[in-house]
Amino acid sequence: MKLRKVTAASAAVLALALTATACGGDDSGDNASSSGSGGGDKIKIGIKYDQPGLGLKTPDGSFSGFDVDVATYVAKELGYEPDQIEWVETKSADRENALARGDVKFIAATYSINDERAQKVDFAGPYLLAHQDLLVKSDSDITEATDLNGKKLCSVTGSTSAQNVKKDFAPKAQLKQVGTYSECVAALQSGAVDALTTDDSILAGYASQDQYKGKFKLAGLKLSNENYGIGVKKGDTETVNKINDALEKMVSDKAWDKAVETNFGPAEYNNEPAPKVGDIVK
């Protein structure tokens, strides 16, 4: 191979190129710099894109919701400003894989803590206690979970909600599983299904949307306790501890209360008090 001589000018150009590369966004797969405070470093955070009041991508490309506010607060405590956050859509069925692959640093996406998931990922929190409920049409005669026997029930692939209903309340319910809750809401509106089941916080967000006001109602059932946690790659204890510290600070300085009012207030959602970190309600 014939080697070319490097002139002083070309060496300077090369040095500048290397410097620019070093200062660019983080493409190393770690999804966050060690300091999180300079050089255009980014942090990738998993959220939902289609859950009003929790995690929603708006038409103008911005993001809103309680999970978004919690994640933004946590990221700030980890050393990242809002403009350093890269939001990544993580659907229910892919949350564990996204963490295992290193696609995101952490996930705040209505991620209920349970024993099965805790074998695959680590959790910080919880940061919200929700309850499983049913969303039905405003004129529906479904008032109890047992009324779903023989009815068509919709939920999202990877969610535990529909399985809970079939196991504990309505084994003869006809289950339809789709990719997003928006698809379930559309199916409920068209009459393709009789009910949508998931957490009351999620259902309240949909019921309060302008296009659905007066069309749907929550059945008002507390079918389970859903402890929302922040998912972290298995074994990343350092990040879990930092997030837990951030969540405790968010509650103590009342930023948690403000986020609840901002995102759930319009839906008149009767939320539970802020849970204590590590306090899992069975």
Structure overview:
32% of the residues lie in helices and 22% in strands. It is built from 9 helices and 12 strands. α2 (66-78) crosses α8. It is globular and about 50 Å long. It starts with 7 loop residues before the first helix and ends in an 18-residue tail after the last helix.
Compact overview of the structure:
This protein has 282 residues and is an alpha/beta fold.
List keywords for this structure.
single chain; about 280 residues; alpha/beta; 3-stranded antiparallel sheet; 9 helices; 12 strands; disordered N terminus
Stretches with pLDDT under 50, minimum 5 residues: 1-29, 33-39
Structural class: alpha/beta
Strand content bin: 15-25%
Largest sheet: 9 strands, mixed
Number of strands: 12
Which H/E pattern describes the elements?
A: HEEEEHEHEHEEHEHEHEEHH
Domain Solute-binding protein family 3/N-terminal: 42-267
Pfam families: SBP_bac_3
Keywords: Signal, Transport
Protein name: Glutamate ABC transporter substrate-binding protein
Strand and helix map with partners:
Layout: H1 8-22, E1 43-47, E2 50-51, E3 55-57, E4 63-64, H2 66-78, E5 85-89, H3 95-101, E6 106-107, H4 115-118, E7 121-137, E8 152-156, H5 161-168, E9 174-178, H6 181-190, E10 195-199, H7 200-207, E11 216-218, E12 225-233, H8 237-252, H9 255-264
Parallel strand pairs: 1-5, 1-6, 8-9, 8-10
Antiparallel strand pairs: 2-3, 3-4, 6-12, 7-10, 7-11, 7-12
Organism: Streptomyces prasinus
Signal peptide: 1-22
Keywords: Signal, Transport
